[in-house]
Automatic annotation (TrEMBL):
It comes from Mikania micrantha. Keywords: DNA-binding, Metal-binding, Transcription, Transcription regulation, Zinc, Zinc-finger. Residues 14-69 form the BED-type domain. One of its GO terms (molecular function) is DNA binding. This is BED-type domain-containing protein.
Amino acid sequence: MEISEDGVLVDCSRLKSAVWKDFDRVKRGDACVAVCKHCKKKLSGSSTSGTSHLRNHLIRCRRRTNHDVSQMLASKGKKKEGSLTPVNFAYDNDQTKTATPNLIKYEQTPLKEGLVNSTAGNFEYKRSRFDLARMIILHGYPLAMVEHVGFKIFVRKLQPLFELATLDGLVADCKEIYLKEKQKVCEMLDDLPGKISLSVDTWAAKGDAKYLCLTAHSVDESWALRKKILSFIYIDPFETEEMVSEIIMTRLMEWDIDRKLFSMTCDSCPIHDNIVCKLREHLSQNRFLLCNGQLFEVRCAANIIKIMVEDCLEASNLTICKIRESIRYIKSSQSIHEKFNEMVQEVGADCQKSLYLDNPVNWNSTYNMLDVALEYREAFSRLQEHDFAYTMCPSDDEWSQASTITSFLKLFVEVSTVFAGSKIPTANIYFPEVCDIHLQLIDWCQSRDELISSLSLKMKSKFDDYWKKCSLVLAVAAILDPRFKMKLVEYYYPQIYGGDAPDCVDIVSNCMRALYNGHDVYSTLASDSQAGGTDGGNDTRDRLTGFDRFLHETSQSQNVKSDLDKYLEEPLFPRITDASILVLLRVLTFSTLELPLI
């Protein structure tokens, strides 16, 4: 309540509250008035009125420099030694709360440069609003938390000067942050010296909702891998493949990377295959793709391995179930487990591994289960002879089948381990592993064992589709590895193609040269377009783009070695080096060659 009467000034030095530093206490009769030293406003100053209304006035006082009252009050209660007296609450057996003061040494740390100093009037409201929005984005908090009563109270007590944004205001802040970050990514993609590869993955949300995640992969000027998620596209079940491909193409044009696209990798799915074909047709019409789009579609290697593994597990499902139930029976009780150990001693099984029960969802664990169980196959058979309750022991033929399936799975586990174990999974590591799978399938198809040959033929029919679409791009990636170059292709292709190997090697070699020449032209034209000029000059240059390409290609016939020729003629790097291909190429280009970024 505001008081207007004047009175006698009273000494405030004995008053404990810190707010009296900003007020004069005036006494008139039995009533006391608090007069603000800054704006001269008069408020009730009696001892029964408290000081809350005085604190609130200091926060709103326009003639006073904005201080954080809570900080001022906290500093007032600080001990001379720099210690605070927090209260620790303990509960006894009767659940009654008791307060026990505990002195703790407190050393005030100075504010670092750039931090908000509330007591100095440096509170930044807009920055705090964006910090709140970033926190919600980073941790996935609900947007509606700004309307929660508890959160409002917490923020008001923490910083009275900060006014929480409304829900619509928070949404606007999040959008503004997104647009700023998007601009940064656009500039990064625009500054890339080479091409961009796109991966399309299917993400599942709660319920039946599914999304396509578009991720851009590239190599920057320092030969470091870059990866940025560009967009999420909701998959409407009623949308056609043509509509989905148009949506993806629109996203690529929004990011202005349609003309910089090199390849696209997606899950192995008939729908995705059709989408890739439509995108390749669209990009090829504008001549954005190198090598006429031969290297555009790249299948996921891990996915084709998973498909072949599913064929293996399906062919021996009954046998695997018997082995799984046998292990579960042995582990069901201590007595059965001890009896099994006796059988192990009798048959002399030399295995240090314990029986392993797999997780049917994880096929790697199924391989581990079969691998260990095969070591104890005789012990399983002996247990069946002594324990009539054990009825699910596999027969000799089923154990033979399990051994065959395990040999298949072993190859796939080893290859998958190589893929997953690489810190930088660049494309060059896939070619030798995929070639080994190809050679093993060829060998298994020629086996006299009916199970091995029939299962191998089934797997090879699916693998051949992957090999047809991806072998060329994987071979090119291997050539770019200074430890292999063309030698790795020349080593594997005779084993795979036999008499047709020379022609297949020439296809890879010609593709590599076409890729190099096309990238060189692309780099030249890109630099010319960035150089700018008058409108008339631009029109002339556009009309003579075909001439520039013709001139570059015909110039290759001269007796001048290109950087690619020099690279292929250089000795191979030692294969024992653990350095990634990006490190090797960085050293190579800085020392001897100017191989363009691909």
